Amino acid sequence: MELKPTKPLSGFIELLPVAQRFVDVCAARMLGVLRTAGFSNLDLPAIERAEVLTDKDNWDEIETQMFLFQKGDTKMGLRYDGTVGLSRYVAGHLNDLTFPFRASQFSKRYRGERAQRGRYREFYQMDMDILGINTLSTNYDAEIISVIQRTLNSVSDFIGENYVRVGSRPFWDALFDYLGLNSAQKKDVFILIDKRDKMGDQDFAEGLSDTLKNEKLENEIKSVFINGYSNFVKKSDKLDAAINELNDFMKKLNDFGVKNADIDLSVTRGLAYYTGLVFEFKLSTYPELGTVAGGGRYANLSEKFSKTKIIGVGAAIGFSRIFVALIEAGKIDLSKFESPVVAAVLPMGDVAVSFAMSVVNALRDENIATVACLDTEKKFKNQIEYADKIFAKYSLIIGEDEVNCQQITVKNMSTGDQEKMSLRDAVKLLKTEQ
Amino acid sequence: MELKPTKPLSGFIELLPVAQRFVDVCAARMLGVLRTAGFSNLDLPAIERAEVLTDKDNWDEIETQMFLFQKGDTKMGLRYDGTVGLSRYVAGHLNDLTFPFRASQFSKRYRGERAQRGRYREFYQMDMDILGINTLSTNYDAEIISVIQRTLNSVSDFIGENYVRVGSRPFWDALFDYLGLNSAQKKDVFILIDKRDKMGDQDFAEGLSDTLKNEKLENEIKSVFINGYSNFVKKSDKLDAAINELNDFMKKLNDFGVKNADIDLSVTRGLAYYTGLVFEFKLSTYPELGTVAGGGRYANLSEKFSKTKIIGVGAAIGFSRIFVALIEAGKIDLSKFESPVVAAVLPMGDVAVSFAMSVVNALRDENIATVACLDTEKKFKNQIEYADKIFAKYSLIIGEDEVNCQQITVKNMSTGDQEKMSLRDAVKLLKTEQ
Questions:
Q1: Which residue in the set B23, B67, B96 is minimally distant from A16, CB to CB?
Q2: Are A36 and B121 in contact (CB under 8 A)?
Q3: What is the three-class DSSP state of B278?
Q4: Residues 6+ apart with CB under 8 A from B112
Q5: Which of A118, A133, A79 is nearest to A292 (CA)?
Q6: Are B26 and B34 in contact (CB under 8 A)?
Q7: Cα-based angle B32, B33, B39 (whole degrees, multiple of 5)
Q8: Which residues of B touch A353 (CB under 8 A)?
Q9: Distance from A213 to chain B by nearest Cα, in Å?
Q10: Sign of CA dihedral B285, B291, B292, B294
């Protein structure tokens, strides 16, 4: 019989235990920050109705981007982000939630597109959103940025420093108005701006030229990427309002304790959702990872689900994008995560198993991570080798002698020192290693 | 424009924040037990190749049970349990893992079948497996049962006491041999035994009669459900071996500190995987939940993926089945989980925001769960109401006075007492509430 393949599908992540422990430690720290910031964790379905996932009817096209399937008459698919489910959930629970509502999500998302280097088809993102009904102070935009930074800082021993760049959708709206673009041009130019990073300067310039056919206008737009808003101060009330909002916001970020924040009008965050200020985080030490977190403000989150206007500010941290990429690039010293085990209990022969298991239970009761090595027919040498291989800090050796005097030989696996002691003393010693 | 539906698809779970917090607390405690027992958490892909999920070629039939889809030429689907992925993963990493290898998984699984009451199409299970190459002591079977019981005990304040029933596949093999059944009869009778719980006694008797057409044989088999193995002691060496193994194992469970364990030969755990002892846990207080955890020993876990023989003992806890069912039945007092928030910081007007945010940051630095109420245009009354609605234990009120003297008015939300104090004293007070 032919054996089945053991590799996961391309674009799917599975880690060895040591790497998984590292990732779990990072997740726990980051989720702790979100809890401390009063966010309620939501765990929404991974499968949504197709009509919830998209407005489009062109299934062939959509199917290249999503995992879609049909059960009975119902078309459905796997979520590609956290926002689509949140917008449905909040609209369905308007009377069950207190607003402003703080929601966090840490869940797997799915992209059906062909896997590329560094692009996963299943990956974790960590979302946080603050939602208000009809109104929500931009103070919360600043707070979200502060919380993302705290979250990233909680793992700075692995990922180093982070910085944030803030852009403004209203600035571009005001600029397009000021330059007198028609609505088709506005849309096309905005798409170009959004893709500029990926296109490169030359393609961007050509795209602008194709769309605008007006060198003066093209140069005005290009100037933003060189001089920021400086050419556009006091050109129109709308431009000034957008520029002032941005400058006030940067002061607020400073008040809120955010470090390494600057304006960058090239930050636009795509076409969907966002309507106000937008922001992106990168890592100073690992710029090659690109944007590791991003978000912004949306004027009407749940408009497709409810007549109630839900204003929000939200962001997602590319959890897998950061940590799996750093592991793959060999940037993480995983040796600290080699073992979850403090004690390996080694009974020598069947006669010792019962006492050994009472020791195991006593250690586990004290939250001391303990592995029982219960293949009692194995030689002492093999048992100790096993304890060594699983990186146990201590081996607790239990033979007939130990059973008779109800004591344990405790061996420190790094120094090799060993000593016979009571269970009580063993617990006391091992607790200091937790 | 018609609004889209806000309810999740039928059979999919989504909880309100208060219920989610309860579930998260239970998961954290149970995962803590598994960590303490030295299990390595694995996070495997939710999507597997169809050929990994099943050997069958009858897609129409399988599609009624699974979520399947195709990308390019590749048929794939969502996992329905944790074992199928584990068997692939272990076979692919034989040289990367140390055996006996302890793996735990806490992940969503998917069933494509039509949703019924209490049956979910997306649900969590918590798996634990101990795997050996070529050999694995049955001591580990006892340890797995001990660990499951510790895991369930860690949430006994919510789910009460648990008990375990142990069955034996070798007993039935020996009995069928002793009774002289042919191999078609063996298979059919075993299917009947496995479905007996759902069929009821009468259908079971009729099924036996149809298959065996021999009243004496039928009565011998029925006697097991009344008298256990007592009619079959000293009838054949194979029967005696199975009975002795079971009795020795029950002694071992006692040595390992397992409570409320008994033999029950009607426990069989279906047709797949298991080849040795099998077991099921139920809850004494909530028998209506049925089996809440179950598992057993399998002789060759990864035979479809590797020529190396991997013997294992494994179990799954029906996490959603327990906790979502208890929430839905109103059996959980969720009032303890009403809020994750210790402090609501309430700045009165824009002038207070900057100082308020420095207070928020200081509290969060101390891991005090803190919500900032930053809609500064809202009236004091609305702010306090909000703090009350989110069940904050304390409100920290910061107006112009407080900013000027750099102090905070701290209001205990349950007693209504309030006092002006320094940030340092506020931190000291609030830390005791964590």
A1: B96
A2: no
A3: strand
A4: A71, B63, B64, B65, B66, B67, B68, B78, B121
A5: A118
A6: no
A7: 90
A8: 139, 252, 255
A9: 37
A10: positive
Q: How confident is the model at residue A239 (pLDDT cuts 50, 70, 90)?
A: very high
| DSSP state letters, B49-86 | EHHHH-S---HHHHHTTS-EEEETTEEEEE-SSSHHHH
**Contact at CB, A139 and B353, closer than 8 angstroms:** yes
Q: Which of B131, B161, B159 is nearest to B144 (CA)?
A: B131
Per the document, the length of chain A is 434
Which residues is B408 bridged to in the sheet? B421
Side by side, the strands of the sheet bearing B101-110 are B40-41, B101-110, B122-133, B310-317, B293-298, B274-283, B162-168, B261-263
The DSSP output letter for A334 is: G
Q: What's the complex ipTM?
A: 0.95
Give every CB contact of residue A414 below 8 A, 6+ residues apart in sequence. A393
Asked whether B168 and B141 are in contact (CB, 8 A), the reply is no
Look up the pTM and report it. Answer: 0.95
What pLDDT, in 10s, does the model give residues A310-333? 999 999 999 999 999 999 999 999
Task: With beta carbons less than 8 A apart as the criterion, state whether B30 and B318 touch.
Answer: no
Q: Give the residue among A17, A15, A294, A86 at the shortest CA–CA distance from B129.
A: A17
Q: What pLDDT sits at residue B20?
A: 97
SS3 B104: strand
Give CA angle at B279 (B275, B284), nearest 5°.
165
Distance in angstroms (rounded) separating the CA atoms of residues B112 and B66: 4
| Lookup result for tokens 């399988």 | B62
Please enumerate, as own/partner, the contacts of B377-385 that have beta carbons within 8 Å and a separation of 24 or more: B377/A137, B380/B346, B380/B348, B383/B346, B383/B348, B384/B346, B384/B411
* Residue B104, strand partner residues: B41, B128
Give CA–CA dist B63/B111, Å, rounded.
Answer: 10
If you write DSSP's letter for every residue of A179-224 in order, what string do you get?
Answer: HT--HHHHHHHHHHHHHHHHH-HHHHHHHHHHHH--HHHHHHHHHH
Q: Are residues A256 and B38, on separate chains, in Cβ contact within 8 Å? A: no
Task: Enumerate the residues of chain B whose CB falls inside 8 A of the CB of residue A389.
Answer: 98
pLDDT in tens, A135-194: 999 999 999 999 999 999 999 999 999 999 999 999 999 999 999 999 999 999 999 998
- What six digits make up the tokens of A285? 């030490």
Chain A residues with CB-CB distance to B390 below 8 A: 38, 98
Residue whose token pair is 């009403």: B338
Residue of B nearest to A92 (CA): B6
